[in-house]
Amino acid sequence: MILQLITDGDINDFEEAVDLIVECGRLPISIVIIGISKDTKEEWPLMKKLDDNKLQLKDSAGRKS
After folding, report:
1. What pTM did the predictor assign?
2. Has residue 55 been placed in a domain?
């Protein structure tokens, strides 16, 4: 199974995305986050937060990834 998150900038529904990622964390799933932008210098701080291997995500109920 593959979950694709595609955005053209920053993630507007970040909390919902984190909830979904944490919920899927117990499944045999690959998560692919794709940022599409004409601006090659786009920073996307929230996408970087999702991709941070040192950070353990917590959903809105406090469950950890």
Report:
1. 0.69
2. no
Does some domain include residue 16? yes
Question: Is 56 within 8 Å of 65 (Cβ atoms)?
Answer: yes
pLDDT, tens digit only, all 65 positions of the chain? 888 888 877 778 889 988 988 888 889 988 888 888 777 666 777 877 877 777 788 889 998 88
Supply 55's token pair: 């950070």
Separation between Cα atoms, residue 10 and residue 54, nearest integer Å: 21
Range of the domain at 34: 2-50
Burial status of residue 56 (CB atoms within 10 A of its CB: 0-12, 13-18, 19 or more): exposed
The token duo for 33 is 């986050």
